[in-house]
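Quick check before the chapter quiz. The format below is the same one you will see on the exam, so make sure you can read both the input and the output lines.
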Amino acid sequence: MLEEAAYRYINGQLEPAYIESDIELSELLAVSDNVTLADKNIASFIAGGPCLNMLLWGEKGSGKSTLLKLLALKYAKENLVTIEFIDESAGAIYKLYKIIRENSHKKFLLFFDDISFNTSDTVYRRFKSAIEGGIESKPKNVIFAATSNKRHIISGSSQDISDIYDKDEANEQTSLQARFGLSIGFYTLRKEDYLNIAKMYLKKYNINMPDDWEKQAESYAIDRGGRSGRLAKQFAAYLYLQQL
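Here is the expected output.
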């Protein structure tokens, strides 16, 4: 009997995964359209309506995994069980399918975090088969969600395709991308959005805001490679420590 909101699947076993968050879905600023779209997809899945496998791609620290965690928490009370799939051994997905079918009263979100493959990587074929292929059908009570820093989860160029074999290989690669009917992009934050997120965390943590906090926040992001929601949160913690 699966009673937890989330699990990780590794070595052929389900282990409880405990999800905690200090923010709400409404506090995922600058990506509200993404939140709405993913939320509607999960809600339709729970209700038995049309739904799509999801690929959340884009900038690191932009809230992709956080969004999925918050949706897992939101819909756990409606019998959604989120499983992070870590086991890459052959046949692992079908052992998990058996567990999912034995719990037909539940809905399952199968979560693949931070995926990407090289064009020379044959593992993607097995992954593609797990998503939507093979002789065994995907259980009706499961959908997939994956996060990636790349829009195209198979890296490499399809240029200079010289013969039919190369074309077949390119088709094999792009067919994996097509398994995710809902592609949601997370882009680099504008300065205004980054500062709004930083301000939200400063207020949430009751941190005194110096007159030059915006300049400090921007410098903090630039020193660490660019603006993101993760860096906005880290800046708030950094400023808190500075004030101790």
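If your answer matched, good. The beta strands are 6-10, 13-16, 54-58, 80-85, 107-112, 117-118, 142-148, 154-155, 182-186.
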